[in-house]
Amino acid sequence: MIGIGGIGNANAADRRDARFGYALSAPALTMLFLVILFPVVSALYTSLHEYTLIAPNYDTFSGFENFMLALGDQEFRHSAWLTAKFVVGVVLLEFVIGFAVALMLNKVERFKPVYYAILLCPLLMNPVIVGLIWRMFLHPNLGIVNYLLSTVGFGPVNWLGDTKIAIWTIILVDIWHQVSFMIVLLLAGLASLPKEPYEAARVDGANSFQCFIHITLPMMRTVIVVTLLIRLIFAVKTYDLIYIMTRGGPGISTDLLSYFIYRTAFVSLNIGEASAMSIILLAAILALTVYLYRYMRAIR
Amino acid sequence: MFKKLLLGSVLALGFAGNASAETINILMEGVPDTEFVKQLVPEFTKETGIEVNLEVVNYAEMHTKLVPQLVAPKGSYSAIVVDFYWVGEFVKAGWMQPLDDRIKADNIDTSVYIPALMDLVGQVDGTTYMLPFYNYAMGLTYRTDLLADPQNQADFKAKYGMDLKVPATWDEYLKQVEFFTRDGMHGVVNQGLRPDPIAMEWSNYLFANGGEYHDANWNPTLNNEAGVKAVEQYKTMIDKYGPVGSASFSFDEAFNVMAQGKAYSYITYNFFRTAYDDPSKSAVVGKVEIMPVPGPTPEQGGSLNGAWGWAIPKSSPNPDAAWTFLKWVESKEIAKKRALAGGSPTRTDVFDDPDLNAKYAYYPALKQMLLTSHNFPVFTYTPQLVEVLGRELSLAVAGEKTASDALAAIEAEMAELARKDGKLK
Amino acid sequence: MRVRWGSFIPHLILSAFSLAILLPLVWIVRVSLTDKLTAYKIPPEIGHVGIENYIEIFSAYPFERWFLNSLFVALASTAISLPLATAMAYAFARFNTGGIFLRLGVLASQMLPPIILVLPLFTLFFTTGLMQTHLGLILAHLTISLPFLAWMLVSFFEGDSASLEEAARIDGATRWQAFILIAVPVAAPGILAAGLLGFILSWNEFLFALVLSGADTQTLPVGLASMETHAGVEIAPLAAATVLSLLPVFVLLPFLRKYLIKGLSLGALK
């Protein structure tokens, strides 16, 4: 367990430090408590009741029945597994591409603002728009992508209509849209690294690769873990893109969990079960976060 | 400085709307029919002094936006528009005000509406909750120029031993689809996206094969010869006669294939009919016509009905003003004006109006379509049934389930939903 | 020779990457200048060219209202959340305030799908009169950006400015001065990056904006989405609106240029 800073031998300065810490976090915490505490508690409470929007009351306490129903539902389990694969896919691919681009950007001086401005553009587009625009590009018969492929001899790719390809299409579009998120954060991390260790290493005759492995990576560790974590939380919540591009199809090949929960809440109007599913999701992400957090601490 | 300016302008925008007396807020969707209402609203404000604020959101998300408003004891919307497949749910949850007293007090004649539409988005179990706003029954849109081509007619006759003409039955239409799939043309384009595009389109296939969703006691009647044929035909259409990828097409993608002149036919909502004649969207202006989806015999139709209705929610802050608006917008005069602008009517007297028939040659076909169309099962769980249909049909089209397995799964879930709703004993 | 390669390869990679991002954007610009019929013509042809889509989004849609609403809400929520998150992140990093439980607690609400939070939030806002107001939207977006910004920033404060702060404290600086005058400038690249991402989170947020906004407070994502209708997608005006919705890049650019260079020099200072 991570200690709370040696309460036993706390001296006056430590206590003042702690007070200063609380004073600094107080405004943010107050704000969060005021707005988000009620919705979160409400979701927890609802998950334990038979609560639908058609009969919105807390008359029937159902204990963990909603949780059992969700876990026993084959569709839910399918969506959960698919979501896990999707999240690992997008987060890792975006990290690899994003880190490479961030390293390059950190090296260059010329055109840097130009590159930066370009990579920011997709980030300023809402997922709904990204989905609609890409649906047009990827139209199998009338889209520009398949047309360009046909000029170099590739047959029409069934981007969204093939059960094996659709999920990869979603991943590709997500990368185009979100990879810059990683770049912005990682570049900021790289920019705030101190220069001296590199200079010392150069004197010792280390090459760029050795510098990267022995200096950049260890110093970037916390930034990397936090970047991965935040992107992961967003990736788990992906639903707009699915909604616009495939609605979970063809078949059930792109039926991600967030979209499934969305349907349970606003199509089936079963808020109780949707809340239970959300809390299962929360527990999974939280466990992963604790693990990553400890891992991050352990190697420091 | 910049920020201050911005704040000022945003605040000014925010307060500009609610200066005068009464305002009614209506949540709508950006379809042509909404546009026609918007154009006429200044007349209403001039007559009554009531301001009308139309908030337009996207169709797919409208339900999400509406539900919290309807659950609340007092909401922001004076009046709403209701898609037919929310009707059962809204009635069951008690979210709409009955209109019968108002209709009686103001002597409104609801018998002018096409009966099938009144059943769909008007009355539920004898109580009137809505006035039918516009219809979106599905029809067969097809290329008249291809049918009229003498070479095509000769080829068709040689191949099938029958004349190439407007199809009178479903089987005749299927032959035409097969025939026109050649030289880079597709016989048909489908909208195979989950859940509502595929569920709605496939319903036409079911009815065209003489099938129905359920019997009088709400026992599902899908997993039979007609149902299996409908699924298999649908799959064949997508795999063999349609363009690559139509298994994931929404209406927009499918419409574009047709509008670019790459398909002979497309079964779709009748409001797309006017879009074919818009030269900024269509390369086939004047070459596409609409007709009822042909049925198993020339007398029967296979079309699926669909419509939106006006309603006043329980949570309406000013139901009286909302009713004043509903009366006005659904009056013969305004309904006719909307139809003249290109709207999809719901009243028989508008369908029979000579001015409109002079302007739109396809009006008799439209009326015929509505009269012979079939209604989708309307009950509390219609949206869930659409989800189930979407999922299972999509699995069948993807080849991951046989037609019979998919239909069996739909039947099981449909029976469960109907039982939960008390329809099926 | 070695120097040449050293700057050539990064530019090669960056150009390739930028091109991959840029080409779809170029095609959006093209679609925005034509009509739907031409946009879907394959093989592509020049066809109709004109600026009527740009006129249409102002005449047929209240584009300027969407844009100003979004800009205002995004700027305001970032302006509020960035200092609050910075202070909280510093407290987390330096004094381990609240320990791991508080840190996880702050983020936990964001691990729930927003669809679950939106109903109670609606109830909360309705009873407090915040429904369909700008303030309500700003608050809703704060709940999203605050936790994420705080988490992003913790890692930037966990860098090695601690020793610098200690030296300053010994020289008589107060805790507050050490925070404002040393820790914040050292973490500036991170703070600016976080601010940028905070702006983007709010700019793109869809679900809360959909449910909590009214006709006058509709934001850009909700407005643009309304161009997808039951009767098809108005793709050409949508493309025009998308192009204009990228304008904040040029607002952010001068500010970013400063940050991109400043970030490096600060790193060198340490």
From TrEMBL, chain A:
Q: Which residues does the UniProt record annotate as the domain ABC transmembrane type-1?
A: 80-292
Residue ranges of the TM segments: 20-45, 86-105, 114-137, 143-160, 167-192, 212-234, 241-262, 274-293
Task: Name the InterPro entries for this protein.
Answer: MetI-like, MetI-like_sf
Q: PROSITE patterns, alphabetically?
A: ABC_TM1
Q: Which UniProt keywords apply?
A: Cell membrane, Membrane, Transmembrane, Transmembrane helix, Transport
Bilayer topology: Multi-pass membrane protein
The answer, when asked if Protease is one of the entry's keywords, is no
The entry's cellular-component GO terms read: plasma membrane
A GO BP term here is: transmembrane transport
Under the heading SUPFAM superfamilies, the entry gives:
MetI-like
- UniProt-annotated location(s): Cell membrane
Pfam families according to UniProt: BPD_transp_1
What protein family does this chain belong to?
Answer: Belongs to the binding-protein-dependent transport system permease family.
Protein name from the UniProt record: Carbohydrate ABC transporter membrane protein 1 (CUT1 family)
Which organism's genome codes for this protein?
Answer: Dongia mobilis
TrEMBL record, chain B:
Gene Ontology cellular-component annotations = periplasmic space
Xref: Pfam families: SBP_bac_1 (PF01547)
Reply yes or no: does the keyword Signal apply.
yes
| Cited CDD domains | PBP2_TMBP_like (cd13585)
Q: Where in the cell is it found?
A: Periplasm
Which superkingdom is the protein from? Bacteria
Q: Where is the signal peptide?
A: 1-21
Statement: the UniProt record of this protein carries the keyword Plastid: no
Alphabetically sorted, this entry's keywords are: Signal
Stored SUPFAM superfamilies: Periplasmic binding protein-like II
**InterPro entries noted in UniProt:** Bact_solute-bd_prot1, SBP
Q: Which family does it belong to?
A: Belongs to the bacterial solute-binding protein 1 family.
PANTHER family associated with the record? ARABINOSE-BINDING PROTEIN-RELATED, DIACETYLCHITOBIOSE BINDING PROTEIN DASA
Q: What is this protein called?
A: Carbohydrate ABC transporter substrate-binding protein (CUT1 family)
Source organism (scientific name)? Dongia mobilis
From TrEMBL, chain C:
Q: Which GO terms describe its cellular component?
A: plasma membrane
Chief location:
membrane
Q: Output the SUPFAM superfamilies linked to this UniProt entry.
A: MetI-like
Q: Where are the transmembrane segments?
A: 12-33, 71-93, 100-126, 138-157, 178-203, 235-256
- Do you know which InterPro entries this protein is assigned to? BP-dep_ABC_trans_perm (IPR050901), MetI-like (IPR000515), MetI-like_sf (IPR035906)
Q: State the compartments where it is located.
A: Cell membrane
| Signal peptide region | none
Question: ABC transmembrane type-1 domain location, by residue?
Answer: 67-256
Task: Tell me where on the tree of life, at the top rank, the source sits.
Answer: Bacteria
Keywords noted in UniProt: Cell membrane, Membrane, Transmembrane, Transmembrane helix, Transport
Q: What is one GO biological process annotated to this record? A: transmembrane transport
Protein's membrane topology: Multi-pass membrane protein
Question: Which PROSITE patterns does this UniProt record tie to the protein?
Answer: ABC_TM1
**Family to which this protein belongs:** Belongs to the binding-protein-dependent transport system permease family.
Q: What is the recorded name of this protein?
A: Carbohydrate ABC transporter membrane protein 2 (CUT1 family)
Q: Which organism does this record belong to? A: Dongia mobilis
